[in-house]
Records
---
Amino acid sequence: MTPEDTPGLATTGPVKVVGAGLLGASVGLALSAAGVPVQLEDASPASLALARDMGAGTPATLTDPEPVLVVVATPPDVTADVVLAQLRRHPRAVVTDVASVKRIVVDEVLAAGPDAARYVGSHPMAGRERSGASAADADLFVGRPWVVVETPQSLPAAVLAVRALAVDLGATPVRLGADEHDDAVALVSHLPQLAASLVAARLVTAPDGALALAGQGLRDVTRIAASDPRLWASILAGNAAPVARALREVRGDVDALVAALDRAAEDGPLTPGAMAALADVVGAGNAGAARIPGKHGGAPRRYGYVSVLVPDAPGELGRLFSEVGEAGVNIEDLQLEHSAGARAGLARLAVLPTAVGPLEKALDERGWRVVAE
Ligand SMILES: NC(=O)c1ccc[n+]([C@@H]2O[C@H](COP(=O)([O-])OP(=O)(O)OC[C@H]3O[C@@H](n4cnc5c(N)ncnc54)[C@H](O)[C@@H]3O)[C@@H](O)[C@H]2O)c1
């Protein structure tokens, strides 16, 4: 994002960012790049210096002009305290937070009294599994939903300022209540994190030989298992009841699945009922996955797939992409699969279903090894 291509931001600044890690530094980078003055604060001098060096803003000082907006991007367990301290320290500023849980923050801020009118909670649905300013990105929020949680006391002007921040950073504001938000993220964010962690935890004692067989399925399912344990402990504890509810439902499904597998193991795979019970679980997964919105938040879309063997050599993937482009086909999504010890990777290109045949033919003619799906 550059000042030239972000004309007329509604957020004028100064903006103060408290907690200059992944989220805070990403906000700072995007606003600074658009010419908005950003003051940074962090409990860790090293994190603060890193965010400053990356261009996310300048460390806050006692002589700074008063911020018009304070963005609190600290871990959820300290967020309410930090929000309250900022409301007191800057008596005219709107204060928002970006914590991944909302009810615990909103309740504590509302309990503190009249300053709460200048507080509006928020949660950008953007992030990554790495923490800290070194993983920050000015474009982190582009095209993502940004949940805005106003309280019964929030001033309309405060709500507008937070919605404007979301829009200025390329996100789409979505209005939700705190409980509605917490239930939703328990299902679409916190449960997936736990599923990834639980599956990956099974690998700790797995034999090396078994791990050498790992393919893209395991990598897909465990990608977010690399998340920061401290931050996630704070998120999960902060949303304990909704997450426990979602997990209990999964436990019911797991119990039924284990019972069907036990029957198949004891009485043979063709024992009545066992096969249907197993197919039901996978079928329900198909139905759920089909409901996940497609690219840019659009309706779920079915793609066709073209798998191509790509030599493990510099420039080969780039050559494949340009030749797909020359064939007039847009790559909608991409998966790359590597096997331990292999000298080639498998690129699985998602394209519109009507493009599968022509693309396979075009790539074949150009000498690529197209692998049957
Ligand atoms: N990581 C994600 O993908 C993601 C996505 C959306 C929202 N969030 C939320 O954003 C917030 C920040 O997450 P993050 O991923 O940027 O974490 P992070 O660990 O990268 O950054 C947090 C920063 O807050 C600082 N900090 C901690 N306590 C502080 C205090 N009392 N005062 C000032 N600074 C303090 C830390 O030193 C650190 O630099 C969390 O509430 C998280 O739930 C995270």
---
Amino acid sequence: MNKAATIRPLMALRIASSRLRQSAARSIAHSTLLTRRGLATAKSPINLIDSLDTFTDRHVGPDDNETGFMLSKLGFDSMESFLAATVPPQIRIADSMISNASIPALSETELHLRAKELGQKNAQFKSYIGMGYHNAVVPPVILRNVMENPAWYTPYTPYQPEIAQGRLESLVNFQTMIMSLTSMDIANASLLDEATAAAEAMVMAYVQSNQKKKTFFVDKAVLPQTISVLKTRAKGFGIQLVIGNAADVLKHDALRADLAGVLVQYPDVNGFVTDYSDFTKQVHDAGALVVVATDLLALTLLQPPGEWGADIVLGNSARFGVPAGYGGPHGAFFAVTEKLKRKMPGRLIGRSKDVTGNPAYRLALQTREQHIRREKATSNICTSQALLANMAAMYAVYHGPAGLERIAKKVHFLTQILKFSVERLGFRVVNASSYFDTLTIDVSKHCANAEVMHAAAALLGINLRRVDHNTVGVTLDESVGQADLLSLMRAFHIAASHPEPDFTGLPAPKEPAFPQQLVRESNFLQHSVFNKHHSETEMLRYIFHLASKDLGLVHAMIPLGSCTMKLNSTSSMIPLTWPEFGGIHPFAPTEQVEGYRHIIKELEDDLCKITGFHACSVQPNSGAAGEYAGLNVIRAYHDARGEGHRDVCLIPLSAHGTNPASAVMAGLKVVPVKTHADGNLDLEDLKAKAEKHKGNLAVFMITYPSTFGVFEDGVTDACKIIHDCGGQVYLDGANLNAQVGLTNPAVCGGDVCHLNLHKTFAIPHGGGGPGVGPICVAKHLAPFLPSHPLVKTGGSDAIEAVSAAPFGSASILLISWAYIKMLGGNGLSESTNVALLNANYMAHRLAGHYSLRFKNKNGRVAHELLIDLAEFDKAAGLKVTDFAKRLQDFGFHPPTCSWPISTCMLIEPTESETLEEIDRFCDAMIQIRKEAEDIITGKQPKDNNLLKNAPHPLSLMIASDKEWNRPYTREEAAYPMPWLREKKFWPTVSRIDDAYGDLNLICDCPSVEETASL
Ligand SMILES: Cc1ncc(COP(=O)(O)O)c(C=O)c1O
């Protein structure tokens, strides 16, 4: 067929579809708009041959008619004129920079085909590499109903406990599981990974010595990635890290005198299980802390460190049902003794009671958080690994203590069989005297070198640990069955040129293969919750029972300012749980992970295009970890130029608490910079401070648009001031959702920025994590990007690792990759435009009801808005919390409360919310404003009213008339808007008493006796 003949029908189709589109785009009244939402015609394709499953139309809530309507309400006749009034012209970039030409768009179907194609480029080897990572078996009931369930993965950190009791209970299960298995007094609700958990422990030991003792000793059989991360962290605090034989540490008097703590691994990287009880006593005699990195499954059989006196116990919980995922995300655990509990980093869930006296969970001891402590904080943990901790907890609930012990015994038994088998061939097992699941095997008897052994294993699709020239490592796990064991044995037989293996003649293991005195004698997980949900039906119901208590994006918008809670599309989540991506060990040889590497490279390239920077590292596991990594990169840059003395970090008072905390951790001195009453940075103050510290200025940290929700005109001037004084500019990219396609951190004047992929790039927040905080940097900083001890990453002059895994939480990078690829450049830009429009429309609707704290000279906000509630406190004693709790009665998650200003709410709708949802939220806010008015004018008493008594759970609704005792009806309390009749989300408890919970700190599940008395 000739070319013209094919083109003609295509053109006819295009013209027809363009006519269809024009007729659909006529102006429609507001009410009609709302009833038409959701119709396929509302978002027509450009022509009839284009894919219909275009992601932008699904991701961006408002359609063309709705954006047209919102623009007209704001007085603009086009999106461009609105943007011109919102974003300073001097920082705008050309449209072509982020367009479908620079980032082409794939349909949802095309994305899945592409992901499949790349997934198949990851070789499906069975890895026995160990080193802290295993092939976890995810129970299908947990995979489908927790990991793949948006009711579990879309909620935010449980800052609003009345609508988060489900995951709070599950996190308490996690804490209880850790306390019980480690035999420690208290555990937190997860940290980012084992290596950073060890770094937190090291700093705790240092702080515990009142920062007087500066030596931290690490046994050389600790995981190498942990040692690398410790080196990075030690630098910032001036801690002297000594790596050697734990047995020798106390022999050196000078070292002993300055010793803050010791870290040992139990079982260690080579598989040895060592009795550290005497050693612990000696370390304590030297006035230092004992920190133990350990393995939860091993602890079902081994004496727990708490029983031999450890002070801090930590590790990775991922072998409890979380896929390896090329390194994560995984929930690290962290447990301490009673005396250290108030210094413990990370989130802690505690039991308290609500105003009616019912037990209820909430975040405990929040004053430890960096939001409050800022530069006095010694940890910057904000987002951690809630979803993964919940998965691990559910795994323990499902298997129970007996099930866990059975799994551990099987793993240990198979490891013993393997040992007998390789010894029978003449190989030497280096740790024959003690092991749980790991053997270190000297293969020199039969192999010229270890490579021969690796090659034999590779023939059978097996990866072993590379130890040294003569030695390999093998770690078994729950996934290993008889066939796997035979295959593993066959690999050794091939290397030994020996005929086929079999089990005949192998001795049956009778005793544990570790010292008798280390056999666990104590019970664990006796609590009721770990002993009743073992059938799949019961487990399913427990998972859904908890999920029903939590408000997530599956219910309503979560307009948390600075958190960007947008659509986490199912299409971008689907590849995540494919085995092609889930089953990959982080230290698998590079040639086996071509698919992953390709995706990571594409993501890094796209992030560089979006930020305007030169290079990217995806290693940091959270925004705060990104800050820390970026600041270390800057320090290394100054150092390399002979300016290592530069250690002053300027930070505006409005900055997020993680900024000053990260700066201190990187060894910087924080100098605060003022902001003006209009929310803008005080450039005079910045200039004065930059000049005052000119000789020592290292960096200025700025969030843009600012945490006050405006694009400041002066950002480029601010960056110039810093550069003129020899400093670098760190741009906190938490608000990047306001920038993509319109401006970028490089154009604003930054040198480095972190991005919260769990905000702008649609990784779900998981109820408090996971997150990914990659850093993008200008060319001059690229050489310093973080390295990794086992896999080549980073630049030519790289800093040590900042995370345990080379590419951090690699598996969830797929989500952001898919998000960017499906939106393409045009969709990314459109998302930003609509995010700005939604926020401004919201500001417009709330105007006259609430005071908008900051706007630009054209009256515009950025992608979020700050409303000030101070007047209500003055008039009637109504606090931000009262408004927030009342919003729960309307079925909404409250916005960010009391940050960055204590009397304010920071509201961020994002582009994914439709006009209808935004209107619903504004209607709720306006109704609450009326209720507040009744309190101000005395129609309702100041101490007994709809706001002060909020939220109103169902249990209150069935109170007797006598108990009700309120000057308003039940209907006013529970159904203040008509749409609540159809769409009601019930908080499960009344307002929770925080102070009571902190004074009476209880952080584990009720015991069997307590459960019986409830
Ligand atoms: C402005 C800003 N910076 C940094 C962070 C820290 O990010 P993460 O919670 O991922 O550590 C946040 C988190 O809310 C933030 O809003």
